[in-house]
Amino acid sequence: MTARLIVMDIDSTLINQEVIDLLGEEAGVGEQVAKITERAMRGELDFKQALEERVGLLAGLDESVFERTFERVTFTPGALELVRSAHSKGWKVGVVSGGFHEVADKIVAAAGIDFCLANRLEVVDGKLTGKLAADIVTKESKLIRLLDWAVECGVDMAHTVAIGDGANDIPMIQTAGTGIAFCAKPKTREAAPFAIDERNLMLAMDIILRD
Predict the structure, then answer these.
(1) In the chain, at which end, N or C, are there fewer CB atoms within 10 A of the end residue's CB?
(2) Is the Cβ–Cβ distance between 61 and 86 less than 8 Å?
(3) What confidence score (pLDDT) does residue 52 get?
(4) Is 169 one of the annotated active-site residues of the chain?
């Protein structure tokens, strides 16, 4: 069996929600945050600037918000099946996200995923400061992590798979051996070699196994 690596975006791909939007709702600025998210995902705004603006709106939230937010997350149909199927073949699965480790780590544990790259939120005295605690995950860092994990797993790039929906997923989708736009924004769908327009991640397996 050929060794493979599947790398997915989290928000609106592995899960049905955008975690930053859920956090925005908890802060009472849900609509404002969601509008910025939508524009950033379409590639209309600089991702770094848009993320910093949204995170700033979360200042003052109690860190207990992470558990409440995770409880509202639902996996995309076929997501857990895709991970299980990949593992049954001896493949590795990673996620790269412009979301946050504080929620992403819970998602990864629940799904049994092998690798995770996400942002971190700064918390002081149990409250969110409205700032990020580390370098921002960008389209470039998503691509770099795909390349790094492929080397770590001993997987040839021709046997890597990248799945995502937003503009910041385009570089990894175009670089992977199999790049899939999943229920994606127009710009991402146009850039991807393959596209899935139905919210069922198991459909990716048909594309991956086509050769």
Answers:
(1) N
(2) no
(3) 93
(4) no
Q: Do 107 and 73 contact (CB within 8 A), yes or no?
A: yes
Boundaries of domain holding 91: 5-208
**Catalytic residue among 9, 114, 165, 169, which?**
9
11 given a catalytic annotation: yes
**Number of independent structural domains in the chain:** 1
Q: What does pLDDT average to in each consecutive run of 10 residues of the chain (211 residues)?
A: 94 96 94 90 86 95 96 98 98 96 97 97 97 93 98 98 96 98 96 98 96 63
Q: In CATH, what number is assigned to the domain containing residue 156?
A: 3.40.50.1000
Catalytic residue among 11, 21, 165, 169: 11
Strands 178-182 vs 115-119: parallel, antiparallel or unpaired: unpaired
What global pTM score does this model have? 0.95
Task: Write phi, then psi, for 210 (nearest 5 degrees).
Answer: -65, -25
